[in-house]
Amino acid sequence: MRIAVGGIEHETCGFAAPSLTAEAPTLMSEARVWKYGEELRSLGDANTIVDGLVRGVRESGHELVPLLWIDANTSPPVTRESLECAIEDLLDRLRKALPVDGVLLSLHGAFAAQGVDDADGEVLSRVRELVGPKVPLMAVHDLHCNISPVMERAASVLVVERTYPHVDMAERAVHAARIMARTVTGEVRPTMAVRFLPLLWSAARMIDAEPPMSDAVGKLRELDQRPGVLSASIGVGYQWIDNPTVGTSVIVVTDNDEELARRNADELAEWLWDRRSQWQREPLPPELALDQGEQRGKYPIVFADQGDNTGGGAAGDATEMLRLFIERKLVPSAVLYMVDPDVAAQAVSAGAGAEIDILIGGKSQPLVGPPVSMRVRVRAVSNGQFTYDGPMWAGVVGEMGPSAWLEQDGVHVVVISGRHQPVDLAFCRSLGLDCRPMRYLAVKSTGHFRSGFAPIAGSIFNVDTASALSHDFRRLPYTRLGRRMFPIDPNVSWTGERQTESQP
Question: Which of 3, 4, 52, 422 could, after both became Cys, cross-link 336 (CB 3.0–4.6 A)?
Answer without folding.
Answer: 422
